[in-house]
Amino acid sequence: TQLLEQSPQFLSIQEGENLTVYCNSSSVFSSLQWYRQEPGEGPVLLVTVVTGGEVKKLKRLTFQFGDARKDSSLHITAAQPGDTGLYLCAGEDNFNKFYFGSGTKLNVKP
Amino acid sequence: DSGVTQTPKHLITATGQRVTLRCSPRSGDLSVYWYQQSLDQGLQFLIQYYNGEERAKGNILERFSAQQFPDLHSELNLSSLELGDSALYFCASSVGVGNGYTFGSGTRLTVV
After folding, report:
1. Between 20 and 30 A from B68 (CA), which of A9, A59, B5, B87?
2. CA angle, residues B75, B78, B83, in degrees to nearest 5
């Protein structure tokens, strides 16, 4: 049983489209991270959100932490082929332990 | 370069053998985490060390063990290897709560 559920599992879109990836849990987290992983490489940290309701923007990426700190979303505007990869969310408990979602595999076609 | 160094990058070995994977955390990070990633299972947490002491254990098999040395580097030992142990093994380090992980580039283990 995954503590964090990500949806969708797979997403294939055309360049220029917008998309949203969701990360949901019944547990409360002290912080939540989003990572992007390319094949054969380690996940790379994109953002950390800490406060309920927090919104962070990273160029075309917008991250939101739910008010109750149980869920999060990642929105990408005008997706580009370079955004292709596996997007992982990870919730952190009070003991600095992280729980990873199963990931959303994004493919952006030129 | 993330600052977390993992060696070797690739490892091919036979069933029943034992291997050691090595990780040097980012400078200043006291916590080291080991994860296993296989195609159908996502990132599975194995074990965490903090400043030389075991802090948390995940789904780590009894055939696997790890340690963190005084210089903070860590080793993951995998013994009596089985075909199903073939996976990417990642090490990550963290400076503390709320700061996220920095991952190494992983060791790809293939058991034949």
Report:
1. B87
2. 145
pLDDT value, residue B5: 96
Write out chain A residues lying below 8 Å of B45, CB-based.
97-100
Candidates B26, B32, B101, B102: best to mutate against A (most CBs of A within 10 A) is B101
Half-sphere exposure of B68 (CA within 13 A, CB side): 22
B31 Cα distance to chain centroid: 12
Classify each residue of B9-18 as buried b or exposed e, where b means 16 or more C-beta atoms within 10 Å of its C-beta.
Answer: eebebeeeee
- The CA-atom distances, in angstroms, between B27 and each of A44, B24, B102 are 17, 9, 11
Is A55 strand, coil or helix?
strand
Give residues with Cβ within 8 angstroms of A66, minimum separation 6.
Answer: A52, A53, A72
Give residue-wise pLDDT tens across range B26-60.
998 999 999 999 876 678 889 999 999 998 888 89
